[in-house]
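User: Run a structure prediction on this.
Assistant: Running it now.
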Amino acid sequence: MQFATISWRTNLWLIPLLTVAAALLIFILAQGVDRADYDGALVLPKWLDQGSAADARALLSATAGAIITTLGLVLSITVLTLSIAASQFGQRLLRRYMRDRGTQVCIGIFAATFVFSLLTLLSVTSRVNEKEFVPWLSIWISTIWALTCIAVLIYYINHVALSIQVNNVLADLSGDFRWAISRNQGPNPACRMLIPAVRSDLTLLSPTTGYIQSIDYQALVSAAAEVDAVVQFESQPGQFVVQGTVLAVAEGDRLSQTQLEDEFGRAVVRIGVRRTLPQDPEFAMAQIVEIALRAMSPGVNDPNTAVTCVNWLADSVRVLAQNPAGNPAHLDSQGNIRVIEKVNGFERIVAAAYSPIRQVARNSPTLTIAMLNSISLIAPFVQTATEQEALHNQVRLAYEGLAAETVSGDRHGVEEAYRWAVMALQPLDCWNGRP
């Protein structure tokens, strides 16, 4: 198995480190030009020279001091943003903020400006009986960077203010879901074929506890074709497994248990301590659900946020209905089935999206009405009776779960939303013989 490694994107140090390295390179080049001007090898424009070594030191000292103070402010705002994200949206969204390119670039620019100014300050020399070395080209570069930092600070404050707004967070999560669905869409989603049963001759067990983060199906197809084997997964990316859990079963006369574990398992299955998005679209949906549940907690009690979450969940369900899962069978170049992946059905995904919210909405007619209206909104996009049945089941459970002590006026609003949802799913009622 592959184990989780340090993500090169989900950190706050990589881009700042690269930016500082770039600043060091620019410093070396600028110092080379200044030294050439000092030695008389070239002549820089006279307007670059703005005074003595003392003037240069004063300017660079003020620049470096201001930048390091502002960098501390930026880091403080970053920590505050992470704290707000953890308390309002859940700790799983911390990784989203840590990999935010705007934050990383802003920290990098301030750090690079400070390092460049400090090194330039150290390079200024004024010894007795020796001509002063004042690298005015480097000083001008430092000054321009310091002025740029003002614009960067204004951008960063605006960026943070936008990033912690729940509507923007939910829109980004919905976009992540659409991206993951399109990324995992097969070449012919509508193509279906008979999936044969695989004998449990060999089993692939999980060597560790954690979440399945990714499975390289193409590599596994190639490996299975070489030994004329078929592998069927009983687990899928996003699923939590404990050590010893059966991940897959395989059959093949030329495939051994050792080969299945070493050459197949270690090469294609990655298990880590957290869920990841690329092969787990439901992870984005689960984060939206988590925000809704936090909004309905007694400590927060924010039904408006929960309603917004339900609205964006409706869009995710619409995307799911319009992009049905493709054939779970992966074929080799000869058209033979080599790998069969596990795919969650529409009903299970819809239940994972709506059931947790429905269970906390029984005392909130507002949220219950929002759920029913969202299902009415996406009902025209479902394509099969099975999908309609899954939505109708959520409509029925939401209506039946409403607390008995709900006042008559609120119950009337729920009943009206329920009737609209049933009308939107009317073809389902006709197929099942209901009036």
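The domain at 278-322+345-431 is CATH 1.25.40 (Serine Threonine Protein Phosphatase 5, Tetratricopeptide repeat).
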